[in-house]
From TrEMBL:
<dbReference type="InterPro" id="IPR003593">
    <property type="entry name" value="AAA+_ATPase"/>
</dbReference>
<dbReference type="GO" id="GO:0000160">
    <property type="term" value="P:phosphorelay signal transduction system"/>
</dbReference>
<dbReference type="InterPro" id="IPR002197">
    <property type="entry name" value="HTH_Fis"/>
</dbReference>
<dbReference type="GO" id="GO:0005524">
    <property type="term" value="F:ATP binding"/>
</dbReference>
<dbReference type="InterPro" id="IPR001789">
    <property type="entry name" value="Sig_transdc_resp-reg_receiver"/>
</dbReference>
<dbReference type="GO" id="GO:0006355">
    <property type="term" value="P:regulation of DNA-templated transcription"/>
</dbReference>
<dbReference type="Pfam" id="PF25601">
    <property type="entry name" value="AAA_lid_14"/>
</dbReference>
<dbReference type="InterPro" id="IPR002078">
    <property type="entry name" value="Sigma_54_int"/>
</dbReference>
<dbReference type="GO" id="GO:0043565">
    <property type="term" value="F:sequence-specific DNA binding"/>
</dbReference>
<protein>
    <submittedName>
        <fullName>Hydrogenase transcriptional regulatory protein hoxA</fullName>
    </submittedName>
</protein>
<keyword id="KW-0597">Phosphoprotein</keyword>
<dbReference type="Pfam" id="PF02954">
    <property type="entry name" value="HTH_8"/>
</dbReference>
<dbReference type="InterPro" id="IPR025943">
    <property type="entry name" value="Sigma_54_int_dom_ATP-bd_2"/>
</dbReference>
<dbReference type="InterPro" id="IPR058031">
    <property type="entry name" value="AAA_lid_NorR"/>
</dbReference>
<dbReference type="InterPro" id="IPR011006">
    <property type="entry name" value="CheY-like_superfamily"/>
</dbReference>
<keyword id="KW-0371">Homeobox</keyword>
<keyword id="KW-0067">ATP-binding</keyword>
Amino acid sequence: MNAGLRLPTVLVVDDEVRSQDAMRRTLEEDFVVLTASGADDARTQLERHEVNVILCDQRMPGLTGVVFLKEVRERWPDIVRIVISGYTDSEDIIAGINDAGIYQYILKPWVPDHLLATVRNAAEAQTLQQETARLDLELRTATPVLRQRAAHKLERARRTFGFDRIERAAGSPMDSVCEMAARVARYDLSVLVLGESGTGKELLARAIHYASPRANGAFVVENCAAIPETLLESELFGHKRGAFTGAYEDHIGLFQRADGGTVFLDEIGETSPAFQVRLLRVLQEGEVRPVGATRAVPVDVRVIAATHRDLEQRVREGLFREDLYYRIAGATFTVPPLRERVGDIEPIARRVVDEVGIELGRPGASLTDEAMACLMGYPWPGNIRELRNELARALALSDSERIEAQSLSQRVLHGQAGLTATASAAALPASGTLAERLDAIEAMVLRETLLRHRWNKTRAAKELGLSRVGLRGKMVRFGLEG
């Protein structure tokens, strides 16, 4: 997420507070989330704020979701409208789905990752539609100057999601990954992105899309592990009315919506062999057959797939089709985990703090040297996603705009302390004078104690039998405080 860009705004309309809170928690990392308990409250929000996407529950006191969304279409036609319902409400929704211009309806109980991906796609579809309409208008009526401006706008959009958006330090292992991905982006090859969860595989996929000739097309995302297989086929390939229970109307799948663009299939390693057969056919024939349809529909998409699994191993185990593996792995890139690129932690952390600070209404937030030292020493099993959550929590709990070490969680401090103590013990000099060896041991004890006490100097000094001034002097001597 770029700190300089306005986050898309989502309005959640639901009369149940718990449902509002659940959707807010799911969406708030990527969107500005507004809430309303009914139609009247929602109208007030729409009159006061610029809203990109509206999520509306079907069953509300007074107006139903579909009836209210029909009004929204008439008064605010640019807003993407999504309705949430149970199967029992589907007939009511279908009866008014065309009049309301509903982008998609989500069945209860909804899955967080699926909800997030749907809203992301809706917001991006709106952005692309508006930008395309503006560019088309300018190009059709343009003077040479206006044509140049339109071209510059398109270039800015491509730079926004470029490879330089992937934060990293000079000499990072990500440099070679991004360099090779930028070369491949120009060609219409399928791409497979490997890496642990939270490493930023989707960021790399977006950069590839926006560096490709398909940059004007849609970039749609589906997490293959987030929804049941039957719904996954419907989401990707679409379905015809009556194809299965609850299919009360034709549904256009993401492959058709991404025609001319890119489909990003996250966690493809979790799919079943039966689904893999259908996906392979789509990739080979360049067409999709919606569930229950008798005819196939041609589509022109580029597929970028990602997984944290070892797909070659799953092929050997018979859990993943070999022919599909070679079809999606036209080019393969591995995003290394954060623990293998420790140098990237500092620039990523500083950027995250900038972004989170703006989101929380605390611009100008920063990290102390002690806090940064703790972040650099922790192995981050959850990678960038865990780092972001940690920093958001720390900033929310901090009393100032500077995140101190003591604001970090015990998990990070204890994990870092254990790691530091083990590493320090292993690194004790095997030779040297007695004074040099004692200094090394003293530095190790000081650092471990400070980390265990969350860099609280008063507590650390008390445990070590030192005055606060004495502790500060030793910290300076051993380079433990910048």
